[in-house]
Amino acid sequence: MPRPAPFVFALLAFAVTACSPGTPTPTGTSSAAATTTGRAEAAPSVAGLREEPCTGLTAEQAASFDLAPGKPISDVGHGPGCMWLSPSHDANVVNLSFDDLGGGGLARIRANRADHAYHDEVGIGDYPAIFASSFDLRSEGDCTLWVGVADGLVMTLGASLPGGPDAADPCSAAERIATAIAANLGNT
Asked: Which of 33, 67, 102, 111 could anchor a disulfide with 22, C-beta 3.0 to 4.6 Å?
């Protein structure tokens, strides 16, 4: 069953946003955003999740988001990733990966704000996060969320949900999924 289009668009949006040139210049909108990530160092559980991203959601949690258990992917260009597919909506896919964005972490995303079609800073649990992409495909069910999980390290969650109840607001779905993953960090 073909699924390349949403995944390709999500990776393209990730690559354009992450690789855009810029000098990190954080602009704090909250106390968590006052530093690069709001975290001084990586918790051991972040390292485990980075090595095995599919452990981010339990099978039960994935099912609660209408996702099948995650499948490891390694072709994202910067280490292991995970892809969760919807059993109910063929085109729906959520992917998770980690990147240091050249050492800049969330500061790099902030520095490229002018290049983003959307850019909204939020908090995911105790972690600062940014909804941002160079292409605004939210009306088509796509949303990218960058979560600062350690100094200079981001967890990137790309949600491509063109079918089903989350199609109209994929960023809310991405936020719910990222919140579940963040809550699991102490358990990985």
From this structure: 111
Three-class secondary structure assignment of the chain: CCCHHHHHHHHHHHHHHHHCCCCCCCCCCCCHHHCCCCCCCCCHHHHHHHHCHHHHCCHHHHHHCCCCCCEEECCCCCCCEEEEECCCCCCCEEEEEEECHHHCHHHHHHHCHHHCCEEEEEEECCEEEEEEECCCCHHHCEEEEEEEEECCEEEEEEEECCCCCCCCCHHHHHHHHHHHHHHHHHHC
pTM beyond 0.85, yes or no: no
Number of domains forming the structure of the chain: 1
pLDDT in tens, 110-149: 999 999 999 999 999 999 999 999 999 999 999 999 999 9
